[in-house]
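PT: before anyone asks, these are the final sequences, not the draft ones from last week. 842 residues across everything. Please model them as a single complex and drop the result in this thread when it's through.
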Amino acid sequence: MAEEGVAAAPGAAAEKVIHTYPLIRHSDMSEEMRTEAMELSVTACEKFSQNNELAARMVKESMDKKFGPAFHVVVGESYGFEITYECTTICYMYFGGNQAICIWKCS
Amino acid sequence: MAPKKQKEKSRANLADDEALEWLKPRVLIKPEDQENVPEAELDEEVGRILTTINPQWVPDEVAFHYGQGRFVTKPKPTFGKAYPLYVYQGTAIRKDSDEAKAQIAAGYGMVGFDDAGPKRAKVKKSAAEEEEEEEPEAEPTPAEEAKAEEDAVGEEEKYQEKEPPVEPTEAPSVTETEVAAEGAEEAEAEEKEAVPEEAGDEEVFHIKPRVKKLANQFNFCERAALTYVYPRRSVETQTVPPPRANYGSTALQCIIFDYYQEDYAKKMREKEEEKPKRLRKKTTKHAKSAQQIHDEQLAQRIREAWAILERLVNQNIYDDIAQDYRYWDDPSDEFREGMGSLLPLWRFQFEPMRSHAVCDLQWNPHYQDLFAVAYGSLDFTQQQKQGCLCLYSIKNPAYPEYSVITESPIICLDVYKETPYLICVGRYDGNVCVYNAQLTLESSYQYKSDSVRDKHSNIVWEIRWGARLIDGEASFFSVSGDGRVVQWAVMPGELQATTIIALRSTAAPVPGPDGTLINVNSCGSCICFHPEKSDIFLVGTEDGAIHTCSLKYNRSYVRSCQAHHMPVYRINYNYFNNTIYASCSGDWRVKIWEDGRDEPLFMFELGSPVGDVKWAPYSSTVFAACTADGKVYVYDLNVNKYRPICVQAVVSKKTKKLTRIDFNRKLPVIVCGDTKGTCHVLKLSPNLRVMCKPPKKAQGIDQRTLQIMKLDKLLSLVRDPPFTPGVVDEKFEED
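LR: through. Structure below.
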C-alpha cells in the first residue's frame, strides 16, 4: 500500500507541483546567518510580493542591523550578476519558484 | 536642490518606516466619534506663551472672616502653588549689598579666576575711561558679560579712538603707515593713554597683594603634580583586508525551475533511500516472521502431537498407576476401623532440579490435574543459584507441562484463582515475580519487582493473591524475612509496592553503633488471609508468634499471640468454619486455633519439624501435615482427637525431608514435595475421606451443612471455657 502511494506520487507530482520553498543555491554563510537571511528573504518576499525593490530594501536593512552594514541585496526574477563579496557573507537563493535573491556583503 | 533632497529623504524615511512596519506591527486605535480635522489644520503650528501670571488667581476674591465677622479680600498667594519644603541659606550675596561692597573693598569680590585679578581690573578701568571719553551716555556694561568679550571690546575701543572701526589684526599696519602724518598726535594720545594706564596699573598694584589667588576649580593643576609629558610619535600598521571572493551567476526562470526540480528529485531520492531501510526491515521481518509463523505453527502442531504421543506412552507405562488411582481402594480399610492409608501414585521429577527442594506446591484451582511447583533450596549453607517454576499434570508424570528456570531460587508461589495461568512467586533474593503460563518460555516473567527500589531485603517466605484493588488491579501480598508485609499492585507493566505492615519484634531495641536505638523487626514466615474478611490476615513469624493483622491498621496488630516456639511454617484456615485455623511450626507441633482464643483447641506433637499443614477441602475435621522425617500425618478429629488416623512414611528420612503438602480440591489425592525435588502424589484411602451420613431425622441436608454441623459439634465438646465472641469480631464491629 505505502509503496504504491510513494511510487505514484513522484510521477504525478513532478509536473503539477510548484515548488515555493526557499532553496539555497549557493551560500558560504554560517548556519545561523544563513537561516536568518533565508527567513528574512521569505518574510520580505511574502510581504512585498509585488515590489521587489521594497523587498530587497527590507532584507538589506534588516541584515545591516543584524550583521553590520554594507549588505547588498538583489531580488528579481531574471538577472545576471558578477559580484565581489566578503567571504562568508554570500547567499544566493531561490524562493517562491520564480524569484532569485542574492544577498552579499561588501564594504 | 535642497527641497528635492529633502523630499527624497522624506520618501526614504517613509519607505524606511514602511519597511520596518513589519518588525513592530502597530495598529492605531481611533475612537469612532473622533472629530475629522483636515490635514492642513493638523499641520498648523499653534504657539503657546508661558508667563508668570497666574491665570487662576482672581484679584478680588473674598472670604468670610469669622473673627472680624465680615468679608475680607483674600491676599495674593505668595508662592502661587509652590510651597517651600526646605530652605537652605546660600553663601552667595548680592553684589551691591553692603557686605559685598566691603568684601570688594577688601579685594576679594573682584576676583573670578586666577589670571583675572590685575588684568581685569585694568581693562575695566580703561574701558570705563574710554567710555567716558567717547560715549558719555553709553549703556553700562552688564556685569554678567563674559570676561573675554569685555577684553575684546576694550581692545577694539582702544583703536576706535580716532579711526573708523577696523579689525584688530589690521590695526598695527594702519598705525605704521600713518605714523609720519599723525605721529605727534599719536604719541600724545598714547602718552595720554599710557598715563592713566600706568595709574590704573598702580591702582591694581595696590590691590594685588591683598588678592587671594583662587585656584581654577575646573582645570587647575598643581605644578608639583605635573608629570613629564612624553613626546608623541605615530606608529602605523595595516590590517589585511577581509578576504573577498567573486561570484557570478544568472537567475533565469528556466534555471530556477530546473534547480527546483533537481532539488526536489534529490529530496525524493533521499526519502526513498530512507524509506527502504525501514521497509526493507519491515519486509524482511515480515518475511521472516511469515516463515516463523509457519515454523511456529508447524512446531506447535508437532508439539501437540508429541504431547499426545508422550501422554500415550506415559499412560501405557504408568497404566497400573492410573488404574490404581482410578479404582483401587485399600480393602484393608474395611477391617481397620478409623485407620487409613496413603497409596503412592506418581512421582514427579524435573531433571535439572534434582538437587533442589520443593519449596512450595499448589494444585491449580481450575484444572484439577495440574499443580504448580516452586523449586528452591532450603539448605541455606549451600544455597542453589537457580530456581524453577514448573507446572505438572498428572496426565504426564514424565515431564512438566511448563517450566521456567529463574536466576534465584523460588521459595513460594500462589496461583491466581481468577486467571489460573497467572502465578506469582516469591524468590530467595527478595524479589517477587508474576509468571504467565500462557506465554512462551522465552518471555519468562511478566512482572517483576524492582530489584533496586522496592524488593524485599530478605527471603520472601509466602506470597498470596489478594482481592482486586479499587481500580480493578489484581494485587498480591508477600511476607518476607525482613519483617514487612507488602502489597503488590499489578499495574500495567510494573508492580507497585505498598508496605502494609512492618512486623515489630518483642525484643528490646538494640543500641546502634552511634547510640541510636534500632528497633528489631521480627521475621515473617507465613501469611494467611481470612477466607471471608479480605482485609484480615494472619502472619506467622520466625519467633513463633501469630499476629492477626488488618489492612486497615498498618501500625498495630489486631491480635497477637505466642503460638509456637519455633518459626511458624504454615497457617491454614478451615474450609468450613472461618474461625478455625491450623498452624504448624518447627517446634514439631500442629495446633488448631479458634479466632479470639489464646489457647489452641488442639495440639499435636509429630516428633519432627512440621513443614506444612492443610485442611482437607472435603471434610471439616480432616487435615494433613508433613514432617521433616518424611512422614505424612492425616488427622480426622471426628474419628480421633488425639491420634492421627494415618501416618505414612513417604520418603526415606535419612536422605529426604518432606516440605510441603496440598490437597487436591476435587480428586482424592494429595501431593507432597521433598527436599530432593520430587513431588509425590498419594491417594487417600476410603477411611481418610469418609463423608458425613445425614441423620435419619433430617434427610436431604447437603454435605456442606453436615460438615459444618460436624465441626460445630466437635468444637462444642472441646471448647473450655465456652465460646465467647472473638476479639477480632468485637474490634471490627466498632468500625
